[in-house]
Amino acid sequence: MIRPDFDNIFMELAVNLAKRSHCIKKHVGAVLTKETRIISIGYNGPPAGTHNCDIEFPESGCARDSKGSCSLALHAEQNAILYAVKNNTSVEGSTLYVTLAPCLACARIIYSMGIKKVVFLYSYAEYKGIGRDEGVDFLEKFGVEVEKYEQEITVNDQLI
């Protein structure tokens, strides 16, 4: 049996967490780590105790804001950071594994919270059909290490 490295374990977990999302538009998962330990997890969706978009709005999803984004959703990385902070866990110096590169708003939060590295699976720019990954550009400009995950991911014996 081949022992997987921690990058692979954490990204596979992020991929599996994305399956928990109630968003009908995009499923995203995130894992916050320090060294080889998981300190928090998250996936995108509305705040706990509000709506489950796939159940309450199965055809259209939640209402859109003025920019066309979900009006209810917290992003996966926001949920992971908020849960850690809510439970008095410092995220400073941590690494974030996320299935979709951070948007610009999330990048600002990541930088402000002192997260030192972000590893992402898919491009936010490609998903949104925009020219570049603004969040990645922001993080790199201000010294946060950013890495696109290039290894193959196998979840439930399926290559993704």
Automatic annotation (TrEMBL):
Q: Does the keyword Lipid biosynthesis apply?
A: no
Organism source for this protein? Algoriphagus namhaensis
Q: Which SUPFAM superfamilies match?
A: Cytidine deaminase-like
Q: What protein name is recorded for this chain?
A: Deoxycytidylate deaminase
Name the family.
Belongs to the cytidine and deoxycytidylate deaminase family.
Q: Which cofactor does it need?
A: Zn(2+)
Which taxonomic lineage does the organism of this UniProt entry have? Bacteria, Pseudomonadati, Bacteroidota, Cytophagia, Cytophagales
Pfam family name, one: dCMP_cyt_deam_1
Report the InterPro entries cross-referenced here. Answer: APOBEC/CMP_deaminase_Zn-bd, CMP_dCMP_dom, Cytidine_deaminase-like, dCMP_deaminase, dCMP_deaminase-rel, Deoxycytidylate_deaminase_dom
Q: Which residues form the CMP/dCMP-type deaminase domain?
A: 5-145
The signal peptide here is none
